[in-house]
Amino acid sequence: MAQAQQTQSQSRSALLRTRAVSFCNAFLTQTPPTHILDEFFVPDQPTITEHAPEWAQTRLPFLSRTFVGRKTNTDDRSASASASAFGSGNTCDDYFRLLGETLVFVAEQSSFPPPEGFLVDADAERTEDGRGGGVVMVVGKGVFRSTKTDRQWRETFVHRLSRFDEQGRIGRWEIWADPLSAWAAVGDEEGEGGVEAG
Question: Could you identify which of 89, 123, 149, 176 might form a hypothetical disulfide with 158, taking C-beta atoms 3.0 to 4.6 angstroms apart as the criterion?
C-alpha cells in the first residue's frame, strides 16, 4: 500500500512539474493570455494574485488583489459596469489585460530554470477527496519594460502554482516580484534604483 502511494505521488510530481514547465515556457514563446488561461488553468474559478503593497495599485493596477474566474461573453455587460465602478474588471483575463497595458516581459531562454529547478510537493494542499492539490514553486528572472515610459529593469520573481486539478491544471497562481522597480519605471521620476531608459 505504501509503495503504491509513493508511486502515485511520484507520478503526480512528474505531471505537476511537466505542466508547470510548459506553463512557464508559454511566456517564452509569447503565447496569448487567453490560450494560457484555456490551456493551463482550471475552468472553474482559477485565481491569480501578484503580491505587493496596496499603495502600488495607483500605478500598477494588477498588484495586490486577487483576480478570480474567467471572462465570458455573458460577463461583458457586468464586467464593463464593474470596470467603470472599480477602474478594471476582476477576472484572470483582466489580470493579463492590466499587466499587458502596463508592462512588457522581455523573455529570455534563461528566464526559467531547467525542469529540476521547479520545486514540487505533490502532496501539499491536497483536496478532501485526494484527487487534486499539490504545489510547484519556481524562481524566474527577466527584463521588464514599462509601456508608458519605455524604461526597463531586470528582476527576479517567484511563481507559486497550487490547487491543481487531476489533469495538472492550475487553480491558483501567486507571484512575488519587484514592485518598487516597476513603480519607478512606470512613473515620471528619473533615475530610480536599477531602472534604465529603454
Answer: 176
